[in-house]
């Protein structure tokens, strides 16, 4: 069997002396949407940071066969990964359009960048209306859309999303996930999504993992994860 | 109250003097701000690095290099020195918090200050003159009496400030490098995950700051007529005060802060003879205190200085 | 050598402490007996600087507040004494309380912005105060107060050795002994301060301001008091300085001396009391010997007529080397050296297994003066064991590798 697009094996990560990931294994296939569930502090955000080389990491993280551990973040990003950080993390003092241009930092095709900007304006019309406005002045939902669009400006093979629904109204979350689904279908961008809203995420993802204290305790198709007794009690509340 | 309060030539002289000095403070403040915006550090050796740059200009002109070419060479050398110091001395301390970095810049202060004094002596040297600074190099405005004139040096210093602001604006707003720099300034972590080489943006900030400082010190020396190893000591305080006034993370704030500070320091002692002597550093201290207690982020700043 | 283990507060510990104190007194009495007046003058200067550096340690090392204006406090003390002695005929001893109170007041005023402002703002304000002070004393406003302007203020304080003092020391030697006694009291008080509730609050504030505030420590109180006491020590250091040097000028109290105080603090150990002595020694002897050596090397001698400048370069280099390689300063290193033959154990630690053998490191450096700092030399493996045995945790945790294995992994 060919290796998955993203392959994490026996990953350990630590902030100083506090080890957060303890031998984590996980994979995301080409064109696949995978959701990562778990309680606060289980290490979900750290998993995404470990992939991007933003935390001291041991073990192996491979993107299409290429080892990422030990590489600087900017190199990892150049390999085709986009990271939409938690709490949106837009550049508040830059305009909407500048935010999108920063997202295309590693691209050289000026015409292609312009075309992509227009394209995401088409997908998220709210952003088009505010293109010259400072990103910091927008609502939470708009900032989240901008963060997603900015991530996609890099034409990634793999999109890492950290809590995209955090702080968003339910209706906006639904719209956002509808857009993500469409992007996945049309662009075949693979996605690894960290999400608190397990129900919603599992309805969209093909597979899911449950993370506990820094390692995977459950993994399988969305239905399998949904069907697991412990999982249901812990995260779905029924 | 000064008896000259209704004398237009006197007031205009205060105005041009204040603006000229203010432009110099603005240049130093710009250097401080350009370092602070991305790294959130204040380089306390900024003034000493600038003095070193000015002495480089002095040395080159003494060896027959035309003054503006000498400034250009010193500008580039300073950029390299600033960027190199960031990478070699400051970056390894980055994870250890603010205090080790402050200590490192203080160590730089000691080394450069003493090093300049060892190489070029403790006695003042004659400053290079990038702008004609003779007695007759002035524009007469009011024939008087009393006359009012503007020296070429004043005009030149203000022109340099305007040109630099324009250049910085183009660099930061219209180039990809500038976009990356501003992205790091706005959100360091997000910039990192966009693939921006954050470390190189720190080096860029330090480099530009050092280059600006060199230019500032060369002009400070010309307005003072002499250059010595302590030339920039007090000017650094004025630059810090201007940056505080304008806001530590605001480029236009640094310019406005410098000019306002220059005017305050010209008009307050010029109009109100409360105490004798040159107490400009006390005025700067008062300005800093008032700003920090009333509006800590400064006139145009957004972030408050909260590291440590 | 065999390692001795001593329980803190026990008879044996008191004995060791007493022996240390006796040794210190002996040194203080022997130095003026054995040295020339020139050397005694240098040792006296060490005392003056050590007291000032101790003040900086209290606010920056223990409380974590950046202070770049310590030279101003030192200068305030020196100028107060100089003016009162020379212009008003006061006795030196009578000026010290006045200088101390003025220092306390200025420190309190500088500490007030610290209530609202953190870190770099404080650096800017204290820096401005430090730079403004020598300017003010050299201006007409300073002259009106009797500072003597740029030239400085001369002062003559000379004591005759009293007849009742039995040791055969010179008048300079007598001055040295009095200074040593004053410094002894000041260091003893500082040791008491950092061991008190206030001292623990200072350290807590430095290590984690928010947690300290939650624990009921009022940061405003601690910060202003720390600044005020720091300034008091700085000012008294300035008073002592005039017993060694008959003049104080704006150049003496400029920003450079602040930088030297900071370097001296880092050298000895910022969060130690005794480190101030090492700092003081460095401040006196480093420039002296540097100038001497530089004067002997022809290349350096030709470079400048002021060989003292080389000392500043060396200070800068020392500062960088220490920030990088010895951030805790020399005293913790020396303490670790001491533990090879004498280990002092706090009573609560002795309740557990008694440490034996020279490989046991005591929990706190500097004899516990630095307050609880488990990061340095703490029994790492023991803490790890404790963690695993007392905290069963979720099942996944059992798979965790032993603690500490991940520590080297920081990139």
UniProtKB/TrEMBL annotation, chain A:
<keyword id="KW-0547">Nucleotide-binding</keyword>
<keyword id="KW-0067">ATP-binding</keyword>
<dbReference type="InterPro" id="IPR003593">
    <property type="entry name" value="AAA+_ATPase"/>
</dbReference>
<dbReference type="InterPro" id="IPR003439">
    <property type="entry name" value="ABC_transporter-like_ATP-bd"/>
</dbReference>
<dbReference type="Pfam" id="PF00005">
    <property type="entry name" value="ABC_tran"/>
</dbReference>
<dbReference type="InterPro" id="IPR017871">
    <property type="entry name" value="ABC_transporter-like_CS"/>
</dbReference>
<protein>
    <submittedName>
        <fullName>ABC transporter ATP-binding protein</fullName>
    </submittedName>
</protein>
<dbReference type="InterPro" id="IPR027417">
    <property type="entry name" value="P-loop_NTPase"/>
</dbReference>
<dbReference type="GO" id="GO:0005524">
    <property type="term" value="F:ATP binding"/>
</dbReference>
<dbReference type="GO" id="GO:0016887">
    <property type="term" value="F:ATP hydrolysis activity"/>
</dbReference>
<keyword id="KW-0029">Amino-acid transport</keyword>
<dbReference type="InterPro" id="IPR052156">
    <property type="entry name" value="BCAA_Transport_ATP-bd_LivF"/>
</dbReference>
<comment type="similarity">
    <text>Belongs to the ABC transporter superfamily.</text>
</comment>
<feature type="domain" description="ABC transporter">
    <location>
        <begin position="6"/>
        <end position="238"/>
    </location>
</feature>
<dbReference type="GO" id="GO:0015807">
    <property type="term" value="P:L-amino acid transport"/>
</dbReference>
TrEMBL record, chain B:
<dbReference type="InterPro" id="IPR052157">
    <property type="entry name" value="BCAA_transport_permease"/>
</dbReference>
<feature type="transmembrane region" description="Helical">
    <location>
        <begin position="281"/>
        <end position="300"/>
    </location>
</feature>
<keyword id="KW-0812">Transmembrane</keyword>
<keyword id="KW-0813">Transport</keyword>
<keyword id="KW-1133">Transmembrane helix</keyword>
<dbReference type="GO" id="GO:0022857">
    <property type="term" value="F:transmembrane transporter activity"/>
</dbReference>
<feature type="transmembrane region" description="Helical">
    <location>
        <begin position="149"/>
        <end position="172"/>
    </location>
</feature>
<dbReference type="GO" id="GO:0006865">
    <property type="term" value="P:amino acid transport"/>
</dbReference>
<keyword id="KW-0472">Membrane</keyword>
<feature type="transmembrane region" description="Helical">
    <location>
        <begin position="255"/>
        <end position="275"/>
    </location>
</feature>
<keyword id="KW-1003">Cell membrane</keyword>
<keyword id="KW-0029">Amino-acid transport</keyword>
<dbReference type="InterPro" id="IPR001851">
    <property type="entry name" value="ABC_transp_permease"/>
</dbReference>
<feature type="transmembrane region" description="Helical">
    <location>
        <begin position="201"/>
        <end position="221"/>
    </location>
</feature>
<comment type="similarity">
    <text>Belongs to the binding-protein-dependent transport system permease family. LivHM subfamily.</text>
</comment>
UniProtKB/TrEMBL annotation, chain C:
<feature type="transmembrane region" description="Helical">
    <location>
        <begin position="91"/>
        <end position="112"/>
    </location>
</feature>
<feature type="transmembrane region" description="Helical">
    <location>
        <begin position="66"/>
        <end position="85"/>
    </location>
</feature>
<feature type="transmembrane region" description="Helical">
    <location>
        <begin position="309"/>
        <end position="334"/>
    </location>
</feature>
<keyword id="KW-0472">Membrane</keyword>
<keyword id="KW-1003">Cell membrane</keyword>
<dbReference type="Pfam" id="PF02653">
    <property type="entry name" value="BPD_transp_2"/>
</dbReference>
<feature type="transmembrane region" description="Helical">
    <location>
        <begin position="225"/>
        <end position="244"/>
    </location>
</feature>
<dbReference type="GO" id="GO:0015658">
    <property type="term" value="F:branched-chain amino acid transmembrane transporter activity"/>
</dbReference>
<feature type="transmembrane region" description="Helical">
    <location>
        <begin position="119"/>
        <end position="137"/>
    </location>
</feature>
<dbReference type="GO" id="GO:0005886">
    <property type="term" value="C:plasma membrane"/>
</dbReference>
<dbReference type="InterPro" id="IPR043428">
    <property type="entry name" value="LivM-like"/>
</dbReference>
<dbReference type="InterPro" id="IPR001851">
    <property type="entry name" value="ABC_transp_permease"/>
</dbReference>
<feature type="region of interest" description="Disordered">
    <location>
        <begin position="351"/>
        <end position="411"/>
    </location>
</feature>
<protein>
    <submittedName>
        <fullName>Branched-chain amino acid ABC transporter permease</fullName>
    </submittedName>
</protein>
<keyword id="KW-1133">Transmembrane helix</keyword>
